[in-house]
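*Target chain*
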Amino acid sequence: MTCKNIIFGVFMLFSAWSTASNQAQPIDTVVAIVNDHVILQSEIDDRMAQIIEGIKANNPTELPPHSIIYTQVLDRMIVEEIQIQMAKQAGIRVSDEQINRAIEKIAKANQLSLEQFHESFPSAKEFQAFHQQIEREMIIGELQQKQVGRRIHVSEQDIQNFLSSAVAHQVIASEYRIGHILIPLPESPDNRTIGEAENLSQKVYEEIRKGTDFQQVALTFSRDQYALEGGDLGWRQGNQLPTIFEGKVSTLQVGDVSQPFRSASGFHIIKLIDKKGGAEKIVNQTQVQHILIKPNEIRSQQACHELAKEIYQKVHKGEEFSELAKIYSDDPGSASRGGDLGWVSPNQMVPEFEKVMSHTAVSQVSPPFQSPFGWHILKVIEKRHQDLSISLRQEQAQQFIFKKKFDEELNLWLREIKGDSFIEIKKR
C-alpha cells in the first residue's frame, strides 16, 4: 500500500469521524470470527458510518444499497484483520514518529496545520482512535511490501523487452489517474463461473456506456480493494500501474472506458480519468553514500542520535566513511556497499533526506539528521545534470516492471491468505 492510498483512505475517515462518533451503538454481537479474533457489530457500524459519509463527501451520486456496502465493508475488515494478525506474527511495527509524519501529511493535504487538524476532532479519544487507524494502515502496507514484494522477480530480459516496447517512453514519463472495476474469479474457476463473471462484466460495461456514473457502478459491482473509493486508484506514474493495464492505458483517451478484459484475478474494466506528463527532461542527480541508525526494541531514538553523533565524529577524525557504513549502517541494501546509494534522482528519497542532500556540498559529510526511518549521516560524492540516460532508463524500467506487477500480485496474495484463514460469518 502506497502512502497516497493511506492518505486517501484516512481522509475519508477524517471527513466522517464526527458523524460516526455520534452514532448510537447497539448491543454488541459477533459478526465474524477470523482465526482467533472476532469482528463485532459495533466495529462494523463505526466503519459503515465512516465509509458512507466519506462516499457522500467524495461522490455525490446515489449510494448503492446498504447491503452491498455492508458486504464490501465486512470483506475489507476481514482481510485487514488477517493481515494485522500476520504482521503481528512477523513482528512488524511502526513507530510513533512514523505515524506522526503520516498525520502531518494528511493535515497538509487538507490545508491544515497539525494543531488545527488535531483540534478538528471532538475529543482526544477520537483522535487516538484515528491515530490507531493510521497505525493499522501503515502496518498493513509494510506487510504487503514484504510479502508481495518477495514474490516478484524482474530479470534483465524483462527490462530489455520493456525498453524495446512502443509504450516504454510514454509510460515511464507519464502519470495517470485510473478508475478500476474488478469482477473477481475464484482460483481454478469452471467454465460456468467464468461465463457468469464475463456476462456480469459486460453488463457493467454497458451500464457505463449508457451514462451511469463510473464511481457508482464501481461501488456496486467492483470487488477490489479500491471499490469503496469508487474504484479510483488515484494518480500513479506509469511504473505504478499493474502489468495487465499496460497495453490498455496507452490506447485510451482521457474519459475513455476499456471493454472488459481478463486476468488471473477476474475481469477488469478501467477508465482513464486524467493524464499528465509525458515529456523527457533533464534531472539533477546526486551520487551519495549514507549511514542509517534505526531504533529498535533495545535502542531508543535518543540512543540512535547519540550513536550517529559518535560516527560523525569518527568521520571527521579521518576514519573512512565506507568502512563505518559497513560496520554501523542498518540499511541492509547499501551497508555492504559502504553505504553507496548510487545516483539519486529527485523525489526518490524521503523529503528529509533530499533536503539535507541538496544542501550538502560535493565531498562533504552532513551532520546527523532524522527521517521516518531513523538517523542518517550522508556523504555527497558527486552531482550532475543528467538527461534520461540509458542507465537511468534501465533503473526506471526495473521500477516500472516491479511496481506494475505489484497490484496484480497483491490481489492474488489477498485471495490466498483469505483462503488459508479460518473465517466464520455469524451475521450478514
Observations:
- DSSP finds 16 helices and eleven strands in the chain.
- The longest strand covers residues 374-386.
